[in-house]
Amino acid sequence: MTYDANRYPPFAVTADLVVFTLRAGALCALLIRRGAAPYAGKLALPGGFTHVNEDLETAAYRELQEEVNVGRGEVVLEQLKTYGAPARDPRMRVVSVAWLALGANLPEPRAGSDAAEAFWMPVAEALRRPMQLAFDHAQILGDGLERARSKIEYSTLATAFCSREFTVGELREVYEALWSVELDPRNFHRKVTGADGFLTETGKRTTPAVGRPAMLYRAGPAEQLNPPILRAGPVGDTAEPPVAGTAP
């Protein structure tokens, strides 16, 4: 049977980004306010159509550069999931390859060509009213959050949210922000410093105006946590603050 391209309607591929960073101890996602139809005025994840001559990862980095002015080496980027429901975009059949990007102290964003504004919003606030997000972006954002929450149990991904040198207390803030829990400081310190290759001592300490100096660490060579640091209970349930690594 001869292939006839005219028998197949065209469709587009987009790169959509779930970009996370910490702001004042809160996990924040990069959002835009759409400046054009469809869904003009609604919030959305940053992203755009993949060019015919570029691969998917290149498209994701291009969108990151346009929205946050960061490039390769400044964030941890991994493919999240593909979303292809036939009616997810009213314009045409659009398949979205979503990406999860994590970074420390990411700069203030700038609105791209199709956005009225761009800003950081606490993830909890964005997901509290999922209908404020265009397309299926509430689902994509929620999937990105769960991916990040799960990966910091078994991998060293949490250090992506930290500066090059950081304290155990600052690393604990990452876990608390992602898991929406309070963690026991002593138990957490024991867990992370005891995990093979997770942290490397710098030999330096902080010089606080008040209080005791804290040891400064860098991310170690490990990519997987051994042993893992597991969530201790339901995310968001802080009536009795759980302790990292204990059974629920």
Label this structure with key terms.
248 residues, alpha+beta, Nucleoside Triphosphate Pyrophosphohydrolase, Arc Repressor Mutant, subunit A, 2 domains, 7-stranded mixed β-sheet, two-stranded antiparallel ribbon, 24% helix, elongated, disordered C terminus
Task: Explain what you see.
- There is one protein chain.
- With 248 residues, this protein is of the alpha+beta class.
- The chain folds into 2 domains: 148 residues, Nucleoside Triphosphate Pyrophosphohydrolase; 93 residues, Winged helix-like DNA-binding domain superfamily/Winged helix DNA-binding domain (Arc Repressor Mutant, subunit A, Orthogonal Bundle), CATH 1.10.10.
- The longest helix is centred in the middle third of the chain and has 18 residues.
- The radius of gyration is 20 Å and the shape is elongated.
- The C terminus is likely disordered.
List the helices and strands and how they pair.
Blueprint: E1 12-23, E2 26-34, E3 43-44, E4 47-49, H1 56-68, E5 76-83, E6 94-102, E7 115-122, H2 123-128, H3 137-154, H4 168-179, H5 185-194, E8 199-205, E9 215-219
CATH superfamily of the largest domain: Nucleoside Triphosphate Pyrophosphohydrolase
Beta-strand percent range: 25-35%
Please give the radius of gyration in angstroms: 20 Å
Number of strands: 9
What is the CATH first-level class name of the largest domain? Alpha Beta
Which regions contain 5 or more consecutive residues with pLDDT less than 50? Answer: 234-248
Domains, number: 2
Helicity range? 10-25%
Biggest β-sheet: count, sense, barrel?
A: 7 strands, mixed
* Apparent shape: elongated
Q: Helix and strand succession?
A: EEEEHEEEHHHHEE
Mean pLDDT, rounded to whole units? 90
